[in-house]
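Tokens in:
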């Protein structure tokens, strides 16, 4: 029998790498332990991503920067914000930077894909993800674009080291039957773009690392599902206590993680 491929989005692999205990709680424990409430910065990211995707569905004459800003407003939610005033302040801010960003985008040139799911197989895994945008640019070829709305300043290393971008590039190459080496992070709040030109070898490096990790996780998942005592499960999926615990949605049910102070739901706002 052929070995079943381990299906994984890069976020699943990253969750395990960050903290095996968090991975177990989020992907394996049944029932899933209660998650914390919404984070305001996630609310912002979701509204901006949806607006930038729906913008391409508008008829060309209506595909203006102002219409993109309006999509941010209509899709807005106040989840995670301190109060309505803070929510409106960040809604208007997001509207502004989405409009500024879209003023740099040619609405007549349709991308090859918007929120397009792509996948690529390795020896032991089926890696998949959803690319925010896939462009076909004259002189540059196919370019994978990932939108960012966080407060971190992005560097070229972020684009180079991103497993998600490498998976999108490999998946887009497979789906489109085109060479895809260019990946970019577009930081909406600052209008900054950082990119990286992969080589087949650098993409392979990402994929083979993901393949090895997926194989290890497949073994662990199978052992967990076959049955572990609570002590065995805790040993197999140890908590990695770090400052990130303050952001963890399972912090309230994770004993070791509670030693790190919790962030407020709006602390991640840019
Ligand atoms: S609180 Fe920290 S240690 Fe606990 S699951 Fe979350 S990230 Fe892991």
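Residues out:
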């Amino acid at each position: 029998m052929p070995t079943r491929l381990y299906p994984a989005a890069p976020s699943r692999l990253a969750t395990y790498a960050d903290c095996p205990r968090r991975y177990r709680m989020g992907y394996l424990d049944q029932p899933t332990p209660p998650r914390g409430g919404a984070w305001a910065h996630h609310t912002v990211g979701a509204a901006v991503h949806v607006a930038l995707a729906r913008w391409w569905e508008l008829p060309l004459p209506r595909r203006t920067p102002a219409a993109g800003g309006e999509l941010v407003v209509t899709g807005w939610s106040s989840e995670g914000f301190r109060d309505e005033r803070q929510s409106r302040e960040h809604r208007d801010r997001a509207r502004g930077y989405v409009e500024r960003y879209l003023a740099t985008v040619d609405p007549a040139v349709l991308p090859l894909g918007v929120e397009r799911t792509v996948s690529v197989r390795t020896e032991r895994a089926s890696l998949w993800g959803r690319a925010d945008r896939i462009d076909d640019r004259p002189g540059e070829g196919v370019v994978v674009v990932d939108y960012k709305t966080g407060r971190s300043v992005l560097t070229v290393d972020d684009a180079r080291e991103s497993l998600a971008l490498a998976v999108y590039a490999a998946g887009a190459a497979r789906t489109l039957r085109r060479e895809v080496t260019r990946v970019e992070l577009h930081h909406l709040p600052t209008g900054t773009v950082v990119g990286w030109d992969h080589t087949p070898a650098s993409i392979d490096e990402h994929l083979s690392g993901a393949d090895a990790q997926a194989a290890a996780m497949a073994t662990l998942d199978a052992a967990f599902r076959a049955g572990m005592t609570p002590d065995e499960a805790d040993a197999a999926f140890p908590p990695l206590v770090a400052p990130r615990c303050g952001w963890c949605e399972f912090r309230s049910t994770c004993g070791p993680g509670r030693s790190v102070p919790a962030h407020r739901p709006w602390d991640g706002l840019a």
